[in-house]
Protein 1
Amino acid sequence: MSSTEIIVNGVHHLVDADDDTPLLWVIRDILGLTGTKYGCGEGSCGACTVLEADEPVRSCQTNLSEAAGLSYTTIEGFAEKPGADACQSAWVEEEVSQCGYCQAGFLLEVWALLGRKPEPTDDLVEKTLNDHICRCGTYPRIRRAIRRAASSRGGK
Ligand code: FES
Ligand code: FES
């Protein structure tokens, strides 16, 4: 075991864990940031999504050794991202969340989508919805929240 440096929400950490420890467990169990969720552990559900730089990654599929020296944002640091407030407000206005378990992953994914595509096509929105699993079936509300957030950020 060796120490590995990672940056999470702007804070540098030296993590003592095996190189193959999933980033998800580093974030949750070692750093105590429990907003990032475990769903499938196989890269399929999106509950564990975090941002690496500005790109969504599945932290259950990222080993500590792969994360060395990189900078991540979890839902706890999301508010500091430019344009995050548009997504957060849209989520509140559309009353998206039910149990909330999947929502951190969705929010980070949607924020990244709107950064790349301020006016996402219906196909892109559906792909985003299909890439994440919400057991509570909040998809229609997420769909509306994406459009609301896009509109308030200057898209349509
Ligand atoms: S827990 Fe990582 S994708 Fe499901
Ligand atoms: S809000 Fe419950 S799993 Fe999505």
Note: DSSP finds six helices and five strands in the chain.
Protein 2
Amino acid sequence: MNLCPDDQRPLAMELDIPALKAAYPRNEWYERERRDMWKFTSLLGLDINDAEDARHLVSLGEGATPLRNYPEHPQAKLLELDLYFKDEGRAEPGYGANPTQSFKDRGMAMAVSMARRHGLTKLVVPTQGNAGDSLAEYALAAGIEAAIIMPGDTPMPILGRVAALARQHESIILETCEGTIREAGDIMRSKYLPAGYFNVATFQEPGWRIEGKKTLGLEIAEPRSGDTWQLPDVIVYPTGGGTGILGMWKAFAELEALELIGSQRPRIVSVQSEGTAPIVRAFENGDDDTAAATAGHTLATGLNVPGGVGHAKVLQILRESRGHALTVSERAMEEELARCWKQTGWWISPEGAATLAALAPLAEIGFLRGGERVVVVNTGSFEKYLPSLRHLL
Ligand SMILES: Cc1ncc(COP(=O)(O)O)c(C=O)c1O
């Protein structure tokens, strides 16, 4: 199935935690040295310790990305923050690497593996770009057909890569649309779903992409040394549909059920662009869900998501965690990107730059406190946006 037939909300995979505890009393499910997201083996909905599951696994080295300390950042210096940068973009020796240079690979590795496990042969995704790039890569590796629908103004490194794959392989279809992921969704519903494609759009598949994104939260919490799992005080996340937030939240709930962490949670912050900010508007208005917004223009195309079935849950998590939601300007994003490049040489995406740009306003309103441990998530790579960003280098 896709959405829950009762309330038309996203589904999630429920794990049998007591059974997991009994099977692995010393948390043997955790393979610390493994260099991909499958290091969490049986704590994932597709269990590589299960022979039948393992047979359907499609892995291209995704996850196990670096969590880098960033003490040079001006806000880290000013507030003496213990600032970390979770880098989902560029490959680095000694770590895993997302094959299409964005965190979407975590969700798609899981979704395509689960699709294979369930005998599906045709998948479709409407996308702002990165999820489509990722689906094309995994579907090819899995021998599954995929139709990818994205806005025609998607940055060329992303659009061009999928176009090249579609040209080389009959099993990959690329279709472009005017507008955003919303209009791409309309094409999916009118053309591909009636033709028998299974919908793996954000939250529309039964919890698989959340399950993959969960590994981001598990990695943020995993022991750096010794055996202690720990959470930061704050996580700043660039939010479109919100899969990453739901995934991390699920990770923390399961770690608590396993008694590896307590009930305390990081304060979760959603960052959106000024152009398209349905979550920020709803958060500010005290609403339970977002209202359909008109999409604007932003360099951070991954954030140009005017609405989503998961937004109600995102808002719930922001409030439960005593978090926040805010917009950042295009200019602030550009400045952070340029600064980060000059200071560190990291190859960050505009979405990642948005999280760094959020630190100063968060400090200004007193949300961040001196000495706190803060993780910002860089969800993609500069390289995928190069034509529109190269002037910043
Ligand atoms: C680079 C990047 N960052 C962030 C997002 C937003 O992701 P989520 O759906 O988890 O909010 C996207 C979505 O397309 C993206 O491509």
Note: Residues 67-97+208-392 form a domain with the Rossmann fold fold (CATH 3.40.50.1100).
